[in-house]
């Protein structure tokens, strides 16, 4: 149900939802700053022979 902004109850519901979303967003932001992903960056696999041949051709 969408709260009616013209009634007192509707305005209270909108304020409650906004507060809840703001708290959730701040929690997600805190987690993102405190626990950065520990995933390695860069290429994780060795190139196969076909990839190496393509690389040599593009260098010519």
TrEMBL record:
Region Disordered, annotated ranges: 1-60
Comp. bias intervals (Basic and acidic residues): 1-36, 49-60
Highest taxon above the source species: Bacteria
Record's protein name: Uncharacterized protein
Species for this entry: Microbulbifer rhizosphaerae
């Amino acid at each position: 149900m969408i709260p009616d902004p013209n009634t007192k109850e509707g305005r209270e519901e909108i304020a409650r939802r906004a507060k809840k979303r703001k708290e959730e967003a701040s929690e997600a932001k805190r987690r993102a700053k405190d626990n950065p992903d520990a995933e390695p960056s860069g290429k994780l696999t060795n190139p196969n022979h076909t990839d190496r041949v393509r690389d040599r051709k593009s260098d010519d």
